[in-house]
Write a structure and sequence with these properties.
Blueprint: E1 2-4, H1 11-15, H2 24-27, H3 30-39, E2 45-52, E3 55-64, E4 77-84, H4 93-107, E5 112-116, H5 125-131, E6 134-139, E7 145-150
Parallel strand pairs: 4-5
Antiparallel strand pairs: 1-2, 2-3, 3-4, 5-7, 6-7
């Protein structure tokens, strides 16, 4: 899997990615994520398509080395969005995306990668736990628990 920049040439294919029914409440759409990136430039959004072969299987967005301003701006390294297309879920692409993002931010000097999630049945809590994320005891501006992955 390769993390590719979003360009005019691949934007439509990335915007066509959809999560499985019922998952929208946990992560939303790529279109909404890109709108959030434009609305919150202070979060220094870093967006990439997750590609296998020539096609996208998912999307990732990270707040890249920001000055934290809790509870609304978490960082410095925050996994803001992770979307795997419904037809590609269950193949390890989400875990691989997190591993690649973790390696990239570690190379930038990060000691931890943070994220948050909606703690409801069917949500991503187990996914993040399996990857090694642990609760920080803090919450974001939406009341979601913040979890951290140690990178050292």
């Amino acid at each position: 899997m390769i993390l590719r920049e979003i360009t005019d040439g691949n934007r439509d294919a990335i915007l066509a990615l959809r999560v499985a029914p019922g998952q929208e409440r946990f992560v939303g759409s790529v279109r909404r994520a890109l709108a959030d990136a434009e609305e919150y430039p202070q979060a220094n959004p870093w967006c990439r398509a997750l590609c296998v072969g020539n096609g996208p299987v998912g999307f990732v967005m990270v707040s890249w080395n920001v000055r934290p301003e809790p509870p609304n701006l978490i960082g410095p390294w925050f996994l803001w969005k992770l979307i795997i297309d419904e037809r590609r879920q269950g193949r390890g692409y989400g875990a691989e995306a997190v591993r690649q993002v973790a390696a990239l931010v570690r190379a930038e000097g990060a000691t931890e990668l943070l994220t948050s999630y909606l703690p409801e049945d069917g949500g991503p809590a187990g996914f993040y736990r399996r990857l090694g994320f642990v609760p920080t005891g803090e919450f974001d501006g939406n009341g979601e628990p913040i979890v951290r992955l140690a990178l050292s």
